[in-house]
Amino acid sequence: MLDWQNLLTKGMDTKDRQIVRLLQQDGRLTNQDLAERVGLSPSPCLRRVRLLEQAGVIQGYGAIVDQQRYGLPVTAFIRVRLERHARDLVQQFEEAIRQLDEVMDCHLLTGDADYLLRVIVADLESYERFIRRKMHAIAGIASLDTTFAYGVVKSSRTFPAD
């Protein structure tokens, strides 16, 4: 069995979790710095990082960008309810949502709404265009219920520690 398959089967150990948390906090850490912080020599540390990548635990690296400074200060949370839950309708809806750049996250829900979308736009006019031109074009939506965020109390990209 390959090592990354073993990782998937047995799960991550404490060192793996430390590595993941540190890379979530700073994806630009050098292997040397990462190894020092988790108490490993550089070679075994790099091997663990590669295994975590191969196993799909670490899916990629990217820059964290300030939404306001980028010019998209408005965050809307949209609860979507579908007319019906036929497989083809659900698949069409989900594929349409994947194509919309304004939709940052789409979560499948229990309860009254079927989905929760996090959408970012430049202003209220942009939001109206998004709803009228893009959301209304998706077949099978029974209702949209929007809540606008007017501040952020906490935004974390680091998973909780054990």
List keywords for this structure.
19% strand, Alpha-Beta Plaits, alpha+beta, elongated, Arc Repressor Mutant, subunit A, 43% helix, 162 residues
The helix fraction, in percent, is 40-55%
What is the N-to-C order of secondary-structure elements (H for helix, E for strand)? Answer: HHHHHEHEEHE
CATH architecture of the largest domain: 2-Layer Sandwich
| Alpha-carbon distance between the two ends | 28 Å
**Major β-sheet strand ordering:** 2-3-1-4
Stretches with pLDDT under 50, minimum 5 residues: none
Give the CATH level 1 class of the largest domain.
Answer: Alpha Beta
Outline: elongated
Please describe the topology of this protein.
Elements: H1 3-10, H2 14-25, H3 31-38, H4 42-54, H5 67-70, E1 74-82, H6 87-98, E2 103-108, E3 115-121, H7 124-135, E4 141-149
Antiparallel strand pairs: 1-3, 1-4, 2-3
